[in-house]
């Protein structure tokens, strides 16, 4: 798999790596499927994680481990959407707003998870070059994917918060293609959030665990 870590081309003076490019193109496709609320969201997300896992395995153990977690959450998301009975008229999952309890739980998990993962990365420097921002992006990604698996509109907001740190971090670490893609992510996330927001307001399905915002 050494070819995955070789240079594909140079863009604006930045060296584009095959694994970085392939994984993030699949990530963009995942986001497009997510916007459409298609079940294909999760297999493509899994494939993206698999490509990056193959690129990192044996070279960057920590990064490979993070992709393994992403793939596990992708399987969880696929399972959730398959079993979810709350459907829109088009047959896809019906978006909804999270309850205040769910929001508090996700914020608490994100904060505690970021601290715990950052401390782990700090204790084992081989796992990450930038422990705190890397932990923030990693945990934020997991929280966003979890919220998406539950059909929550807030998952788009979580992705935006991840982008705010992900763009400069990727450029700083030499993953230029990831940096460029994260900029595109930001635009698509805003578009997707608007679509899910409007659809959630049209939903006639009841929301469990308390009243929505």
How would you explain this protein's 3D organization?
- 37% of the residues are buried.
- The chain contains 7 helices and 2 strands, in the order ββααααααα.
- With 213 residues, the protein is mainly alpha-helical.
- The radius of gyration is 17 Å and the shape is globular.
- A hairpin with a 2-residue loop joins β1 (7-11) and β2 (14-17).
- A two-stranded antiparallel sheet has the order 1-2.
Strand content: under 5%
Share of helix among residues?
Answer: 55-70%
Can you give the mean pLDDT? 79
* Most strands sheet: 2 strands, antiparallel
- Euclidean distance between termini CA atoms: 48 Å
Number of strands: 2
As laid out across the biggest beta sheet, the strand order is 1-2
Radius of gyration, CA atoms, in whole angstroms: 17 Å
Structure classification? mainly alpha
Outline: globular
Helix and strand pattern: EEHHHHHHH
Helical stretch tally = 7
Residue windows where pLDDT falls under 50 for at least 5 positions = 204-209
């Amino acid at each position: 798999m050494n070819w995955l870590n070789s240079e594909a081309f140079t863009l604006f003076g930045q060296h584009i790596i095959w694994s970085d490019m392939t994984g993030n193109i699949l990530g963009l496709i995942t986001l497009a499927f997510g916007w459409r609320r298609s079940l294909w969201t999760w297999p493509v997300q899994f494939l993206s994680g698999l490509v990056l896992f193959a690129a990192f395995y044996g070279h960057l153990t920590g990064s490979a481990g993070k992709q393994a977690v992403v793939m596990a959450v992708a399987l969880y998301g696929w399972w959730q959407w398959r079993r979810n009975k709350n459907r829109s008229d088009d047959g896809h999952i019906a978006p909804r707003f999270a309850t205040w309890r769910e929001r508090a739980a996700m914020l608490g998990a994100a904060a505690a998870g970021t601290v715990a993962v950052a401390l782990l990365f700090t204790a084992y420097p081989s796992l990450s070059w930038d422990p705190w921002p890397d932990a923030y992006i990693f945990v934020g990604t997991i929280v966003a994917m979890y919220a998406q698996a539950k059909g929550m509109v807030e998952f788009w907001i979580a992705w935006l918060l991840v982008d705010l740190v992900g763009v400069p971090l990727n450029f700083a670490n030499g993953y230029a293609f990831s940096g460029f893609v994260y900029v595109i992510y930001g635009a698509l996330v805003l578009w997707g959030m608007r679509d899910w927001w409007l659809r959630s307001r049209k939903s006639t399905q009841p929301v469990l665990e308390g009243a929505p915002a």
